[in-house]
Each structure stands twice: as structure tokens, then as C-alpha cells.
Amino acid sequence: MTAIPKLPTKFFQAEDVLELAYASDPQIRPDGTSVAYVCRTNSATTDRTEGALRLVDVRTGIESDIPVSVDVSEPRWSPDGLKLTFVAADDDRRPAIHIYDTERGETTVLASVPRRPRHLRWSPDGTRLAFIMSVAEPEEGMGRQLEKPANAEWSRPLHVTTRVEYPSTAWATNLSGVIISSWWIFGRGNYGRSPSATVMTTDHSRGRPTQVH
Hints:
By secondary structure, the chain is mostly beta strands. About 0% of the residues lie in helices and about 45% in strands. The chain folds into two domains: about 90 residues; about 80 residues, no CATH class.
């Protein structure tokens, strides 16, 4: 008769979620010597997933942390591999594009922006960055709204989403511009509204975002 296998003595508990960690968005340095990635963990303080930026030496496997805000995303190497840009909160908790200088070991804020940037892309010559950022648009209401009496406290009116866009960016090889590829979902009947996506570029030396689309 086959013996009944022993059951495990320890089971996964709710608090074990706080001990989990996983790597996301790995980026290989152009010379192949190291890999930058975001280490994501679950915070008991903020009740959300947070990301820390780490570098791994490919030859030795030794990891090192880049001391920045824990809310990190979008690590991207410059073409020469000397700088690493990423998105994180600045000292005022605003979304910002940061640059880590590997030679000096210093991190600086390139530009603070109203909303969190996405799809960061270095230009081939390493002088500019393209990214996508949401910008506010006038909200489209669902029909005519009644005039609110003085001192009344009404719920926010319903709004309709007519287009959802999923864009990405890439630089033209001759630096003549930014290539935008997108696909959309059109329709009515969805409640809520999201800001539209806009392509921005920022000069590496000046850090001044410019809207291009």
C-alpha cells in the first residue's frame, strides 16, 4: 500500500506577499557588461507595488542599487552606455525623468512633468529623449446637464470615452523626427475619461520638454 505523502507544514500566508520580489523591464547596457532592471516589491506602508532600480554586473553577478525614489520605471540606456535614464518622483513627489551618470555615480533630474512619462526613447546621437505623456482635454459630457442650484453638492456627471489610444515611439535613424505607432479603440458606453496621449521630446542638455504631437 502506497504511503500517504506528508503535507507541507508551512502554507503561503497573506503576509508572505510582503516578502515577494520580482524583476521587471530588464535593459542590457550597450556594451553588454551590465543589466539595469526594476526590482518590484509590495509595500506594507503604502499598500502598493513599488520599484527600485538595480544594476547587475554580467560577469560577476553582483548587484548594486541606484539610490533614487522607490517609485521607479522605464530604465533606458543612452546609446553610448554612459547614462541611464528612468522615471521616478522628484523631491516634490512630481513625476520626473532622471539621469544616472555611470562615470560619476550621480543622479540628476532632467525634467519634472505634470504626468508620468511613458515609452522613453533616446535619439541615436544621445542628445534627446522622446516620451509619451498624457495631457488634459476638455471633458465630453453625456447629454445636457441640469443647472445645479446654489450650494448644492452633486455627484460628478457621467462622461463617455470615445477613443482609447495605445501608442509607442521610435526615433528615425536620420534624427529627422519621432516615429509614432498607435492603435485605437473607438466606441461609446464606457464611463470615465482618460487624458489623451501626447509625444514629447526633451533636450539632454537643457531638459525642457517640447510637445511634438
